[in-house]
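Example record

One chain of 90 residues, shown exactly as stored in the release files.
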Amino acid sequence: MKKAVISVIGKDSIGIIAAVSGGCADFGVNIVEITQSVLDEYFAMIMLVDISKINRPFSEFVDAMAEMGKNSGLEIRAMHEDIFNAMHRI
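Predicted structure tokens for this chain:
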């Protein structure tokens, strides 16, 4: 299974999880794990997703998630597991 990590941070509002999961579904990306928290008025979420069946290039998915975030006043980042693992190796 090829995986990616998606992080979402910003002011809380209705429909954030629905919008991000819908964006994933549009690309054939499956959510494997999700954790989210609301701290006062701020929303934070981390998702582990399976990108084995992604239907377009991963770079397009990254750009689409970032654009979705920009349009919603959120910061959404998608990072391939290889990059994530390399960044966190000692």
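Notes: Residues 4 and 81 are 5 Å apart (CA to CA).
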